[in-house]
Design brief:
Layout lengths: L10 H12 L14 H4 L6 H14 L2 E2 L20 E2 L11 E2 L6 H8 L5 H4 L13 E2 L2 H8 L19 E3 L13 E4 L9 E11 L2 E10 L4 E7 H9 L4 E5 L2 H5 L12 H5 L8 E3 L5 E4 L3 E6 L7 E8 L2 E7 L4 E6 L4 E9 L8 E11 L5 E2 L4 E8 L2 E9 L2 E9 L2 H6 L1 E4 L8 E11 L2 E12 L1
Parallel strand pairs: 3-4, 12-18, 19-25
Antiparallel strand pairs: 1-2, 5-10, 6-7, 6-10, 7-8, 8-9, 11-13, 13-16, 14-15, 14-17, 17-18, 18-20, 20-23, 21-22, 21-24, 24-25
Length: 454
């Protein structure tokens, strides 16, 4: 069963990062300057910055191979079946799909990759959701927010002053002044245009001088890993008014948005190598939440041809259904009782297969009737079952900077409502409230569009 291992140290993630880094000093490796490990790490980074690099590389170094040719690619077309890719795919899933690392585990994505009937191959958000393609993905802001140990992502344009505290521009704006854990910000090139952030994950020195700077970011089709000489890096940041920033106080920068305050991100689970079920998988992968009443499509694959006899579905220890099987195929069911479920197969030899784990949850929100007036607080009511609301994310139509978080308190959970502060928005118009909730299997959200008036 999935466990919340947030307080456990991450030896595998650390080992991965150190092995990755040590490749730079190997003959013919990735370090053109030939810097030794001692030279490379003589400038000691704060512990949170070391973790930022480790956590970024959980997402940027993972390898996966599509088992079908219908997974949409944000650059157009599809990822190629049988081709190995490095780094998680890019897709701005919004509230339609799910963000890897925040809404689902990395292993949930990897399980979905192994199921040719999963949402990765049967759903296409291109043309339906702006800047999206695959049902699971990551974008630049969720990549850096994940690395910076946030409980929820900050959009890229809100990474900087005056929207965040505890942050300064690097001075001078030069390769010789940067360090791992700094980030490069691309401002919008036109009003209401898109912005971008990149994470600096390595600064290579030789005889005290920076020779190369490594940048990693989420960019179509998957995360990028770019090593530039110091001169190339300076040209890179000089273009299009880009600027390098340094977080000097991570607690001030994150505020209440701390990963260790929530179940996700779960770096221990994401950094461990999962064992993917070869007998059956869910359409959403494995270790994942569903909405109450949502169809759960169980693909009995029997990839090792052991022979399947029966599909068992349990809620907790209680048997929900026993379904006879005459071979591989898809079994579809929906569940109206919230709880934690397992699905497994009884094989022809009488043994039981590993189980897929999922939860069934209910989540809803409502706002008071009538006009919502600017300058007055709003009460928003919610209901939930088998999942815990953690925050409301509010956006203002037409205002790319109008993004706000309202954190759900214990008192809010008891009264099943929260209050949107009166001064959150100053202009009337259309707003959207996303209520975000989590349990040990992942996160779900419900959205509500509201109109505000003066």
């Amino acid at each position: 069963m999935v466990k919340n291992c947030r307080k456990v140290l991450l030896p595998l993630a650390l080992m991965t990062a150190l092995c990755y880094a040590s490749a730079y000093s190997e003959p013919g490796g990735l370090n053109p300057g030939g810097a030794t490990m001692e030279q490379k790490f003589k400038d000691v980074l704060p512990e949170w910055k070391k973790k930022a690099v480790e956590y970024a590389r959980i997402m940027s170094t993972v390898k996966w191979i599509p088992v079908a040719g219908t997974m949409p690619n944000r650059r157009g077309g599809f990822f190629k079946e049988g081709t190995e890719y490095t780094g998680v795919p890019y897709s701005s899933v919004k509230s339609v799909g799910r963000y890897i690392g925040f809404d689902i585990y990395l292993k949930t994505f990897l399980a979905a990759v192994e199921n040719p009937e999963s949402v990765l191959y049967t759903e296409n958000l291109a043309g339906k959701v702006t800047n999206a393609a695959g049902y699971y993905g990551k974008v630049c802001s969720s990549f850096t927010s994940y690395a910076f140990q946030c409980g929820y992502w900050y959009v890229s344009r809100l990474h900087n002053p005056p929207y965040r505290e505890g942050i300064v521009p690097v001075d001078p704006q030069d390769a010789q002044a940067v360090e791992a854990g700094d980030f490069v910000y691309y401002p919008p090139l036109k009003p209401n245009g898109g912005s971008h952030v990149e994470l600096i994950t390595d600064v290579i020195k030789e005889k005290g001088r920076v020779t190369h700077v490594r940048i990693e970011d989420s960019w179509p089709p998957t995360t990028r890993d770019t090593l530039r000489t110091a001169g190339e890096f300076n040209l890179h940041i000089a273009a299009d008014n880009r600027k390098v920033y340094r977080i000097t106080d991570p607690d001030a920068w994150r505020g209440k948005n701390r990963a260790d305050s929530f179940l996700f991100p779960n770096y221990a689970e994401d950094s461990s190598k999962p064992v993917i079920n070869r007998v059956l998988l869910l359409d959403l992968g494995d270790w994942v939440p569903y909405y109450r009443g949502q169809a759960v499509k169980i693909n009995v694959m029997d990839r090792d041809s052991r022979g399947v006899k029966t599909l068992l579905v349990r809620r907790g220890k209680n048997l929900v259904e026993e379904i006879p099987l005459d071979g591989p195929g898809i079994v579809e069911r929906s569940f109206n009782t919230c709880g934690d479920y397992t699905a497994l197969c009884v094989m022809k030899d009488g043994s039981e297969s590993p189980a897929c784990e999922f939860s069934v949850c209910d989540l809803s929100l409502s706002v008071p009737g009538g006009d919502l007036r600017i300058g007055e607080p709003w009460e928003v009511k919610f209901n939930s079952d088998n999942i815990r609301p953690i925050l409301a994310y509010l956006t203002k139509a037409g205002d790319p900077y109008g993004c706000h978080h309202v954190w759900i308190t214990e008192d809010d959970l008891l009264k099943r409502s929260f209050t949107v502060p009166a001064n959150l928005f100053s202009e009337a118009g259309e707003c959207t409230i996303w209520l975000v909730a989590e349990n040990r299997y992942g996160r779900l959200n419900r959205a509500k569009v509201i109109m505000t008036v003066k």
